[in-house]
Amino acid sequence: MSFKSLGLSDSLLHAINKKGYDKPSPIQEKAIPFILDRKDVLASAQTGTGKTAGFVLPILQILSETRQPKRRPIRSLILTPTRELAAQIYANVKEYSEFLPINSMVIFGGVNQNPQIRELRNGVDVLVATPGRLLDLHGQGKLFLNQVEVLVLDEADRMLDMGFLRDIKRILPLLPPKRQNLLFSATFSKEIKMLAGTFMFEPELVEATPENTAVEKIIQKVYRVDKGRKPALVIKLVKEGDWRQVLIFTRTKHGANRLSQKLEKSGITSAAIHSNKSQGARTKALAGFKKGEIRVLVATDIAARGLDIPLLPHVINFELPNVPEDYVHRIGRTGRAGASGEAISLVGADEADLVRGIEKLLKEKLPSEEIEGFEPKDEPQPAKEAPRRNQNNRNRSGSRPKSGNSGGGNQRSGGGSKGGGNPGNKPGSGGGNRKFKPRRRR
Ligand code: ADP
Ligand code: MG
Asked: Cα(248)–Cα(337) distance, rounded to whole angstroms?
């Protein structure tokens, strides 16, 4: 399958070629024909599988095929939860539309609105936006959505997690009732399907499991260590392993700042990104990290969500996330595009329950070890509170009767990925993450 055989125009093929893509990714292959067919599409595939091009390319094709209305109204609206994602999608739209007469722009909060208002006046075909600023500018009469032909909710699961449901519900009535709706998400939770049910028309369901190699090559490890010694252990790992590009997750913004400062003091270049940082600071940090000027990027889950960081060899969970699904998203930052990666979790005595929650979700035990000189001394905590697994009711699939480690049955060919492996292989499906397993409708 090639991009050409999907029916994309020469201008788009030219741009795709310039990006260096050889062939469509599985989700692109599945979603693009439906979108070109003007169907509503509900699509799910893991982070890093090329969902953006999966909707942007066919939208550009559709918009350039039909006649341009005179006053250049907004014809496609792409909603996304964070500023970083908005900026990233916009950058992609720009690249893919380089050889087309299509105007695009991005709006998000946290920056002065005036330049955005000025740019809107020039006429915009494709608008990428975060919900808050969009509603804000709409309320001020600075933009109109009554000519939108294609709506995209990107990273819809995260939007729900971040509490954007109300904003989404306020935005929908501003759009014309007859339009094409696309919803992209890393997961197909019950909530996502419910949301889809409220505004989509007979959507086509498309799903792609990650290519086996990408996920299988992620080696996951747990290092048991006392909380207070985690920064020293990070420094040791980074320095002794001579790691050049490391993404570290912390649970809090404050924790991200503190760790980043400690790393800097020890001579490791580092930056923290989280929602309290200005947009400029976040963009700069990410750019520095990508260029290799910043060795360690410390991020909170929300800030890191969806960031396009190619070929990341090392991810460290400084603390485990409260929600096991976030663990899957975090480790999805490594081993992208078939490159191998290592995801290390530093686990204190108080985090044992969180490990169990993650293992239950993955249906696999995480190999755990101690590092010499960092043997834990803290007392293990009694399992008091149940892990807050279903806090957001994400991915709840009712009863899961199978016990955690189903062992041999679904192990692929033995060797290789020691202790790593694919989170939640299911037998007979050629791999893929259980979390992204197609959920049959009755
Ligand atoms: P997602 O939204 O699924 O997390 P992105 O759309 O951000 O993923 O794409 C992840 C990376 O893959 C980006 O760097 C993008 O340029 C690249 N990419 C997208 N489509 C292809 C393709 N067909 N071939 C190679 N790389 C691709
Ligand atoms: Mg995406």
From this structure: 20
| Strand partners for 206 | 43
**Could you say which of 2.40.70.10, 1.10.10.10, 3.40.50.970, 3.40.50.300 is the CATH number of the domain covering 218-370?**
3.40.50.300
Q: Residue 49: CB within 6 Å of ligand 1?
A: yes
Taking the CA of residue 25 as reference, the ligand 1 atom at the shortest distance is 23
Nearest CA residue ID for atom 23, ligand 1: 24
Q: Do the beta carbons of residue 129 and residue 79 sit within 8 Å?
A: yes
Residue 89 CA to ligand 1 centre (angstroms): 11
- Are 68 and 118 within 8 A, CB to CB? no
Q: How far apart are CA 119 and CA 127, in angstroms?
A: 11
DSSP, collapsed to helix, strand or coil, labels residue 68 as: coil
Question: Residue 386 has which token pair?
Answer: 């149940």
Task: Write out the H or E segment, with its range, that includes residue 150.
Answer: strand 150-153
C-alpha–C-alpha distance, residues 252 and 161, integer Å: 16
At 274 the three-state DSSP class reads coil
The answer, yes or no, to whether any atom of ligand 1 lies below 6 A from the CB of 310, is: yes
Give yes or no for residue 53 CB within 6 A of ligand 1.
Answer: yes
Pocket test for ligand 1, best of 12, 16, 25 (most atoms within 8 A of CB): 25
Distance (Å, whole) CA 422 – CA 343: 12
Which-ligand-closest: CA of 155? 2
Cβ(317) – ligand 1 distance below 6 Å:
no
Q: CATH 3.40.50.300 in the chain, residues?
A: 4-207, 218-370
Q: Per CATH, which fold does 4-207 belong to? A: Rossmann fold (3.40.50)
Residue 203, token pair as written in the block: 């959507």
pLDDT along the chain (442 residues), means of 10: 93 95 93 97 88 97 86 94 91 96 94 95 95 96 96 92 90 96 88 89 84 56 95 95 91 94 96 83 86 92 66 88 85 64 92 92 88 87 50 40 36 35 36 34 36
SS3 content of the chain, % helix, strand, coil (to 5): 40, 15, 45
